Amino acid sequence: MAALGRAGTLLSFSFSWREPSMKLTKLNIHGYRDVAPGTQLVFSPSLNLVIGENGTGRTTLLDLLSRVLASDFSGLIREEFSLEYTLSFPGMELHVRVRNARPSAAAPTGGASREDLALLPPRSQEKGPELEPFMELSIQLESPSTLLVMRSDAVGVSWEVDGQPAYSQTMHWSLLDRTVWVVLFMTAQRLEPELRERLKELLRRTFLMAPARFDESLGMFQQMGTTQYGMELRGEEVFPLGLMSLPRWLPGLLRDRTEQALSAGFIDIRHDELEQGFLARFVSLAGFTAGKFRVELLKQRSYEGGERLEFGHFGCGFTRRDGSVLSQEQLGHGQKRLLSFLYYLDLNEDFVIADELANGLHPRFVEACLRHLSPRQSFVTSQNPATFEHVPLGSAEEVRASLIHCGTALQDGREWKVWSNPTPETATRLFGAYQRGDTPLGTLLRQHGLW
Questions:
Q1: Closest CA to 287 of 248, 221, 256, 331
Q2: pTM score, two decimals?
Q3: Sorted alphabetically, which InterPro entries does this protein's record hold (predicted)?
C-alpha cells in the first residue's frame, strides 16, 4: 500500500461525497440454498425495495446481495451454490460466474469442457475436496473495445484477451477464501501495462469493497464501539495497518491529528467540522445543539525509525438544549438506530443494504434516511408503510426494476423461496394506479399482490 504524507491533504473538512460508480444490474441464481433455481433479478441503479411477507427470504436476499457486492463467498466454502451477476462500472461492464459444485456438476453449462477453460495444469489424481470452486470474471472494456476473461479454480488461474490466451499459472490455493476482487488484484499484475492501467481504477475501488447488511436491530451501533484502526509512522510517512471499514474521512483526520492523540490520549471531532458527515446530520435531525465523536489512542509503541499507533473505543456525546450532555449509550433506541445508520452511510459510499430500515424510527427520521441514500444504489426491506411514502417512481420500467417480491412456492414436493421482479403487465398497472396519486404506495402493493 502506498505511503501517505503525514502533512498531506487527504482530509477536507468540507468534503463532498464522490459519485458512486459501480452498480449491480443483474443476478441469476442457478443454485443457492432453498431459493428456486433459475431465479433472475434486475435492479434499479438507485433505490430497490425488497418486499414480501415474513419467512420469504428477504433477509436471506440482502445477505446474498452483500456477498455478491463484496464478491466474497468465503462463508459458503462448504456449501453448493452457483451464481451469475453483472456489474456496471464507468468504461466497462463486468460479468461474474462463481460456483462451488460437486465434481459431476462442476463443468459449466453450454457445452464447454474443462479443457476448454484452459486452466493449467490438469488436476492430480489425489483425492480432492468434495466441492470444486470456480470463478470466471469477464470484463468488457470500452474505447477501445477489449474483452478480458479471468478464470480460476483450486489449482490455477488463466487470462484471455479478446479470445487469445494471455497467461496461465498454477495456484494451489483455497480459492473461495479470497474475494473475486482480491483474485483479480493478484492476477492482473501479470497483464500488459496498458491493460493494467485501464483496470487501475476498478482495482482501487473494489479491493476493499465489502458492504455489510445494516441489520434490523442495533448491530451497527454495537460495532461502532468495537472498531479499531492502526497506523505506522515513519518520519513524515504514514502507513495504514490492516484492512478495516472506516468512514473515508477518518484515516486522514487521525493522521493529521497525531500530535493531539499523543498528548491527550484521544482525538475529539466536533459535529460542525464535517458538515456532511454522520455526526452533523444526526445533531440536526435529533435536535441537539452540539455533538462530538471521540477516538481513543489505545496503544503507542516506538521503535527505531518510527512508531505504531492503535486507535479504538469510538464514541459520541451530545449536548441538549439545556446544556446537559448525553453519551451515545443514553440515547433512545430509535436515536441509536438513526445514529448508526448515518454512520453506516459514511462507511458505504457506493451501496446500502438495509434490513427493516424504518424499525424504531419516527416517520421524520425515515424520510431523512431515505433522502440521504442518494446517490448510492440501495437495497432496502421494510414492513413499515412509512418507508413507501417517500419512494418516487417515474415509469413502469422503474417500477419493475425497483421492486423485488419475495414469496414461496411448492414445486415437486419441495417448498422454495421465489424471488422476482413484477411482470411488465403488473408494473404497468401498478404505475398507472400510482400516477393517479389517490392511494398510498403500500396499499397499491398489497392490492397488486406484492406486499
A1: 331
A2: 0.89
A3: AAA_GajA/Old/RecF-like, P-loop_NTPase
